[in-house]
Amino acid sequence: LWLLAQRPNEVISRNDLHDFVWREQGFEVDDSSLTQAISTLRKMLKDSTKSPQYVKTVPKRGYQLIARVETVEEEMARENEAAHDISQPESVNEYAESSSVPSSATVVNTPQPANVVANKSAPNLGNRLFILIAVLLPLAVLLLTNPSQ
């Protein structure tokens, strides 16, 4: 997904995907691994093969990300700009215009740590769900099966 997102609307060859995902890591896999990976990606995105919204198969060539891609930095810059415009009183704007410091130096885009924390909680939820299933499955088997005599 990362490789497709780096080059949206561009057809990425199967060979390029193999290189990026496996060969650069020292693995050699057959074509079915890529097909399975794309299938898994589509399932995670709830994307259809017949009328795709995200990943389109280009026969004999590769795959293409057809969704709009927006990087986190662009989104954060817009959020910072909107917050800056809302919280900036008029007197400060007038001072900034009259000061000798260039206006490009007054705008600083800094990453928001809250976004990073939110992203770390998603795998934690998956781990908890996995542990819950791992505990409940053996209990269900023990409780729901008849003992043989």
Sheet of most strands:
3 strands, antiparallel
What is the share of helical residues? 55-70%
Strand content: 5-15%
Q: How many structural units, i.e. domains?
A: 2
**Structural class label:** mainly alpha
Structure summary, number of beta strands: 3
Q: Could you characterize what this model shows?
A:
With 149 residues, this protein is mainly α. The chain has two domains: 2-65, Winged helix-like DNA-binding domain superfamily/Winged helix DNA-binding domain (Arc Repressor Mutant, subunit A); 72-143, no CATH class. It has helices spanning 2-6, 14-21, 31-45, 72-87, 90-98, 103-106, 113-144; strands at residues 11-13, 55-58, 62-65. The N and C termini lie far apart (53 Å).
Features:
3 strands, extended, 7% strand, three-stranded antiparallel β-sheet, single chain, Arc Repressor Mutant, subunit A, 149 residues, mainly alpha, 60% helix
Brief sketch in words of this structure:
With 149 residues, the chain is mainly alpha-helical. It contains 7 helices and 3 strands, in the order αβααββαααα.
Secondary structure layout plus pairing:
Layout: H1 2-6, E1 11-13, H2 14-21, H3 31-45, E2 55-58, E3 62-65, H4 72-87, H5 90-98, H6 103-106, H7 113-144
Antiparallel strand pairs: 1-3, 2-3
GO molecular function: DNA binding
Protein name: Regulatory protein ToxR
Keywords: DNA-binding, Membrane, Transmembrane, Transmembrane helix
